[in-house]
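User: Some background: our group keeps a shared notebook of sequences we're curious about, and every so often someone picks one and asks for a predicted structure to add to the entry. Today it's my turn. The entry only has the sequence so far, pasted here. Could you supply the structure so I can complete it?
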Amino acid sequence: MSATCEPAGPEQDRCTIAGISTSKTAFVTDEIMLKHKCHVSHPESPDRLIRILQVFEEQGIFADENLLKVEARAGTDDEIDTVHDPDHRAYIDSLHTLSKAQIRKQADRWDSVYFCKDSHESARVAVGSCVVVTEAVCAGRVKNAIAVVRPPGHHAEAHCCMGFSLYNNVAVAAKIARQRCGANRVLIVDWDVHHGNGTQNMFLEDPNVLYISIHRWEHGKGFYPTGDAGAPTTVGSGAGAGFSVNIGWNQGHNAVGDTEYLLAFSNVIMPIAMDFNPDLVFVSAGFDAARGDPLGGCDVTPEGYARMTHMLCGLAEGRVIMALEGGYNTTSISYSFAACARVLLGHPPPPFSEPLRRPHAGYLHLCPCASSSYPPPPFSDTFRAPLHSARLSSEMYSDCMTCLLPMMCCHPCGFGCLWAPRCPGSSVCAGNTDWWVHHAPTGRCATSPPPSTRMQRIGRCCYPWYDVQFNPQKNVVRDGQRVATNAVRGVALIRMKLFSLFSS
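Assistant: Of course. Here's the predicted structure to add to the notebook entry:
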């Protein structure tokens, strides 16, 4: 069975996203990608792929009747050039002509990159593998896809290498999906613990590609990559303003785990993604937020990754393409990726091997009006009880998450209600925002909101979602759009902009 679409020229009809009539999952990898290796010990090593394949074999993934192995190929010049400068491609291609000493000297030019004689070949196959499975999914030959590829790609910029990345594998595949495979709206969810600066920048002004990253940010200092690219206030620019969503953890080392990730998915990522209504979903699947990773320092389990995958499979009729990015504990990435693969193959996510804890002790602060029980009891049928308010210490979370994460864990309605809360007297939110908690038109929080705050119903979301708009007196109206004047409002501003676009 062919796994590629015919390339579309300017005069040809382009491929369109086909309806799904199969439960098959495409799988692609190639031993050529093992040839990219460093001359000294390095966390991004061929052992990552070798161990993943071993665990897939041990868990019977390769024997699953729904798995369809697809032949890898090298990415073409035209494919790579969709997101990279031709000069950058020519530079990578030229490396194999250099001596070993010259290659090492070239690697020193870049930020956290190594090269070898075969790096160009491995990098091309990583790109081509992602394109092959993208074409297969878009043509309807498979429902979803797994790409076990390296070197990773999400740090690679249009003109340069960085962060172990030579070419941006997912960005190339997303561009191909848009240009010749009929995908009008593409969602990229990047759960690698490092922000995918390269992917974000390649689609920064594109309103047809929604990029959502959940990562350690640490206020832009002390965690790779540093700077403001992964800040919650970085939301895209031009026509793409509002289509870059950054959820950045602060002081996340040994603290952020399944609880926090599932909160972010349930309350921020999935509602935004459902309103975007993508035709195709890519997962930049770095597993360096996994428990035991030497670089990430977080605590996400295989069961947590499986749950996140299961949520994403509810989008785009299940058209999900998962491509490996980072992850440097070979045991952690192997079992985490295997858990995700089993979900893509149609198996239910496994139960958690240990109870989900409440958000990390010392970081979640319940206000005096909140119940001491956890989880809080449900509302009565009349919905007359006051809502619980909560705040999260900004010492751990970025400011936007201060206002967005408490909802599922402290809100009496759990998954049913998703709000932007402000607790009266909160030292975190006081003076920054006038967001208030509401349940429905018949429900109110303990203290009535100011008259200037109003509720906005969002149309295409399966949750009973309302959006609390800002107090107009604390915002600037510019070209008809509300512009937040404080960084604490970053994600809510994104939500407002996205929802205003998609509910019209």
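Suggested note for the entry: Residues 366 and 372 are 8 Å apart (CA to CA). DSSP finds 13 helices and 14 strands in the chain.
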